[in-house]
Write a structure and sequence with these properties.
The protein is 39% helix and 13% strand. The protein is built from 20 helices and 18 strands. The chain has helices at residues 21-24, 42-47, 57-74, 88-99, 113-124, 142-152, 173-182, 231-239, 251-258, 269-285, 287-308, 334-345, 369-385, 392-403, 435-440, 479-488, 513-522, 531-540, 544-568, 619-642; strands spanning 31-32, 81-85, 105-110, 128-133, 156-160, 162-163, 168-169, 186-190, 209-213, 224-229, 323-327, 347-348, 357-361, 466-470, 503-507, 583-591, 600-608, 646-647. The strands form 6 sheets. The protein has a 7-stranded mixed sheet, sandwiched between helices. A 3-stranded antiparallel sheet has the order 16-17-18, covered by helices on one side. The protein has a two-stranded parallel ribbon with strand order 1-12. The protein is globular. The N and C termini lie far apart (82 Å).
Length: 654
Amino acid sequence: MPTSSFNVAPTAVPCPVVESLDAILPEEPLLMMGAGPVPIPAAVAKANTIVINHLGATMVKVISQVKTMARYVFQTHSKWVLGVAGPGSAAMEMAISNLVWEGTRVLSIKNGFFSGRMAEMGRRVGAQVSVLEVADRSVASLEQIADAIRRERPEIVTIVQGETSNTVWNYQLKDIAALAKAAGALVIVDAVCTLSTMPLAMDSWGIDAVITGGQKGLSSIPGVSLIAFSDAAWERVKGRTAPNAHWCLDASLAENFWHNAGYHYTAPVSGVLALHEALRLVCAETLEKRFARHQKCSVALQEGVTALGLQLYAPKECRLNSVVGIEVPPGLSPGDVCAHISRQHQVEISGSFGLPIVRIGQMGEQCREHNLFRTVHALGRTMVDLGVKVDLPAGVAALERGLSGGSEGFSFFMFDPLAFPCCHGGLLALPLCGADAVRQHPREHASIRHPLAMHDRHRRHRPGEVVAERRKADRPLDRDAERRAYRQRAICRDAVPRDHSRIVVRAHAADPPQNRAGAAQAFPEAEHEPAANQQGEARRRPAPAQHRQQQQNAARAAAEQTDRHRALRPERVRGTAGERPRGQRREVLHADRSAGENRAVAEVVVDIAGQHGERNADREVAKKRKKDDRNNLQGHREFAASCRCVGGHGENET
């Protein structure tokens, strides 16, 4: 019986030889602090590894919850929430291509690169687009916008809430939407970098379409975005006569999957699951707390950058908090700064589109205190390495003041409590951020690593040296892991803090008074601790009797340790007659004087003298030496029992 066979001809294109991702990616993950994408929580990363049936019952439930949570984030009761398989620009094009067609009058308020992109998309579908050009680093006045609306009589008005390219915030968005609605126009808002980072109330502000990307404020992965249409906007979508030229972005076809559990195209199921987890974390935190966290962290970052001696790009009255623009000093380019900080400090920040600025994001997981300290330190060191004079300790101290709630000019967000069902009153209380969120959701935030040490805490500090350290706020770290991380990174010994609470600056206990005064001058904001901290320290400080007991226990442990060493000592050691080689062992005893503050160190030097001499040495001499050893040991015990603790940092811990 014949069998089928065929000859395999060599392929015309040879098989390529490529490197694995392990060889391509950096050994240490980059901290993504640019204008997007942003770091993602562990729950989002885990969800992104799962693949399920995109048309099954499980996916139907996931989609239902995504829409429910998205309505909360958009602050809308509209049914018409859809997902988009693509970046935020795909959601932008879905809004334009469904609401705008040939002959549609469009007024585009252009603040920068991305607001101009919406105008370009309108032109490509044949709309009559009028652009209101706004000067760089400024926003259009309500009078200018009202005049443009009267002159152009638009059917559609497009605007960004935050212009990511030049970090300008259209803070009058609510009033602009009201002007457009009064003229009968629909309003499309780009909220890619602002949704969930600052208030946006779609229904109460009268906005008809809001777009956002998953990779910024929501802290999800790139490639899956969201769009919400108002009822009026959806009527316009369903009432168009000509079909949408963009098949994948046709909202009427997308409705079949997102609302009817039908088929449109194979959805990015892993990305949708990741978006579900990102929205769940937003809802767990609540919008009011999330807004406050972003506001506080961004303002603190701006103060830290200013204290370094660098200039912020946008004026304060229209400065975007979600993305902070920093002017590049003369003689440098944004590429120089971005490349150096990435290569030397493993921190990624962004340039812009032809502007002489670098941008640092404050969206989602970027707004964590440890990320801010690492970023400010890396930025300051980068400027120093590139020859720019900056004041790094002042920048870190200003950042700490801002995060501690001491920022001047810090403003509370005010918004309608009825528009935000989870809000309890119109004034946002400012919660602690960073550590609190990690404690409340430890599994979701498991990917958040404790900040690396910014100065060497594993060495003894010389007398007269000012040491900036931070009080422990979370559980103790693995010291071996700390040391390995320290060896891997070139971390300076500037006054850069480590943990998540207030800086406390102390001088060495052996410093003269003038040096301690110098520490107070170097860090005046940390000269005095709050009364609450002092009371807490007093509560943790052991009583005198307890302190004496600790000393006695330490002395007893030292004596037992010495006895063990003597028991293991050889009876005779070869040597030359008349010589008495001596060995010393230094035992470092740690007594915790204040249970969490500085460790106190008492050093006991024990001379371990063996029996020396030649084999025929006189036994009487050996007995005399043993007797001397016992007398010395008794003296050491008495010394250890009466020694006073001296403050310092021990390196050889036992």
